[in-house]
């Protein structure tokens, strides 16, 4: 079993409140989950209205599939015009580790 995760640090566009932040983040999380079939959540910077940390994780039998899913998630975020992807940090582990 292979477990992969990626954490994104993103800068939100013209967002002036935490309520506006939620209205931007919710559709992003829904799209990530739907299009990658992975788990996605806001995992940090909850109290900052222009920054967010989003985590995506996936479990699969093949490490190549895990990498493909994480690559797809990164492309999805990079293509969104309302945010700026500042960084992405990945991890990959085997259940045998």
Can you tell me about this structure?
The mean pLDDT is 93. Helix content is 36%, strand content 40%. A 4-stranded antiparallel sheet has the order 2-3-1-4, covered by helices on one side. By secondary structure, it is an alpha+beta fold. It has 2 helices and 4 strands; from the N terminus they run βαββαβ. A hairpin with a 6-residue loop joins strand 2 and strand 3.
Please render the helix and strand layout as text.
Elements: E1 2-12, H1 18-36, E2 39-44, E3 51-60, H2 63-78, E4 83-94
Antiparallel strand pairs: 1-3, 1-4, 2-3
In short:
The protein has helices spanning 18-36, 63-78; strands at residues 2-12, 39-44, 51-60, 83-94. The chain has 97 residues and is of the alpha+beta class.
Helical proportion? 25-40%
- Contiguous helical run count: 2
Q: What would you call the shape? A: elongated
Overall structural class, as computed from helix and strand content, comes to alpha+beta
- Biggest sheet: strand arrangement: 2-3-1-4
How many extended strands?
A: 4
Strand fraction: 35-45%
Query: Averaged pLDDT, please?
Result: 93
**Could you list the spans in which at least 5 consecutive residues all have pLDDT below 50?**
none
SSE succession: EHEEHE
Could you tell me the radius of gyration in angstroms? 14 Å
Let me know the largest β-sheet. Answer: 4 strands, antiparallel
N-to-C CA distance: 10 Å
């Amino acid at each position: 079993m292979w477990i992969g995760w990626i954490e994104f640090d993103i800068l939100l566009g013209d967002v002036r409140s935490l309520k506006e932040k939620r209205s931007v983040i919710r559709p992003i999380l829904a799209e990530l989950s739907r299009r990658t079939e992975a788990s996605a959540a806001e995992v940090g910077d909850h109290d900052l209205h222009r920054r967010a940390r989003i985590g995506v994780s996936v479990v699969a039998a093949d490490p190549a599939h895990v990498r493909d899913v994480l690559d797809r998630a990164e492309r999805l975020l990079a293509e969104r015009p309302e945010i700026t992807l500042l960084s992405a940090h990945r991890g990959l582990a085997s259940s045998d580790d």
